[in-house]
């Protein structure tokens, strides 16, 4: 009797291994198709039904869980990290809208400076580009990048920028 159970167990284990490999390959294809659909304009709500889930949140969660992430992270950790990042972005955007006038005023003053070092050219060009956007949150990172170039001769602007720190 032990011999008759052996091949059955071995075959079942081999089949499970093969199934796992097929599942991993399908998951990779699924994420690629989700990205293609999203790039083409499909919303998470549009994807929910084809993915067999009930909501846009479930569709996004499924995508995030299947996406590769840093070594050692779980799918749920990727979901939480993405949600945390988006919450921080929303908080910064709300703060920037509330402080838009001050951000734009400082950005204008900083871009008008003519005595900044050559290393400040890239941050200044990014501030100018951000000023062209309607969203004042676009100014936050370029202003922070320009901050180190203000300490030498423009302590007043550096102090104003420091006083206007996002959450």
From TrEMBL:
It comes from the Bacteria. This is Type III effector protein.
């Amino acid at each position: 009797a032990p011999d008759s159970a052996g091949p059955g167990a071995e075959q079942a284990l081999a089949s499970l291994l093969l199934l796992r490999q097929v599942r991993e390959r399908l998951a990779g294809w699924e994420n690629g198709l989700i990205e293609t659909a999203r790039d083409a304009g499909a919303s998470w709500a549009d994807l929910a039904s084809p993915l067999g889930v009930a909501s846009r949140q479930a569709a996004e969660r499924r995508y995030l869980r299947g996406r590769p992430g840093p070594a050692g992270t779980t799918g749920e950790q990727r979901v939480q990290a993405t949600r945390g990042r988006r919450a921080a972005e929303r908080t910064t955007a709300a703060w920037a809208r509330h402080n838009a006038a001050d951000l734009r005023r400082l950005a204008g003053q900083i871009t008008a400076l003519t005595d900044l070092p050559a290393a400040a050219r890239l941050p200044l060009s990014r501030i100018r580009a951000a000023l062209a956007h309607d969203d004042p949150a676009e100014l936050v990172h370029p202003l922070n990048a320009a901050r180190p170039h203000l300490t030498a001769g423009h302590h007043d602007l550096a102090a104003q920028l420091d006083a206007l720190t996002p959450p």
